[in-house]
């Protein structure tokens, strides 16, 4: 079998090419997830994209976004996309050697609050990950299921969906880290 045909069959089978790699980083709020993702992404040569899912809905969030941009420094193309993350990843896949998505939990909250079908959107996102080519992707997400059971239905639904999404993304990733008090701990790969 020719190398071209074998590569084509591998792609049709839904497997990523060897050049693609997904690194999933989870942990609590302010645990160092984003800083770790950026530091690891900077070690990879090539063009870098940052997909920010946060929206500047108030002055405090505007200031946070501004600080995050400054912390990243130059050399990053920032895409602000609160909802259509799967479509954006498909669009820029291959144009950038490194993509950082920060963060899935904000993205999920945006989807749920917009009234979109969160199960469909998250399913589409995971399918996009499995078809990824030519890109090293760092995905940041909060680990939300380690606290008390929320008292209201929407919060419980969010917690449950975030937990399932994190499991699916971790399954699709070659490497998984959890950050605790600024210390990344490798738990897969």
Give the helices and strands, then pairings:
Blueprint: H1 3-12, E1 21-27, H2 33-42, E2 48-52, H3 59-72, E3 76-80, H4 85-92, E4 98-102, H5 104-114, H6 118-130, E5 136-142, H7 153-172, E6 175-180, E7 183-188
Parallel strand pairs: 1-5, 1-6, 2-3, 2-4, 4-5
Antiparallel strand pairs: 6-7
Number of strands: 7
CATH superfamily heading: P-loop containing nucleotide triphosphate hydrolases
Number of structural units classed as domains: 1
> What is the terminal-to-terminal distance?
30 Å
Report the sheet-strand fraction.
Answer: 15-25%
Overall CATH architecture: 3-Layer(aba) Sandwich
Task: Quickly list its features.
189 residues; alpha/beta; Rossmann fold; seven-stranded mixed β-sheet; 7 helices; 7 strands; disordered N terminus
What does this structure look like?
The protein has helices at 3-12, 33-42, 59-72, 85-92, 104-114, 118-130, 153-172; strands at 21-27, 48-52, 76-80, 98-102, 136-142, 175-180, 183-188. By secondary structure, it is α/β, with parallel strands linked by helices. Strands 3-2-4-5-1-6-7 form a 7-stranded mixed sheet, with helices on both faces. Helix 5 crosses helix 7 and helix 6 packs parallel to helix 7 (153-172). 31% of the residues are buried.
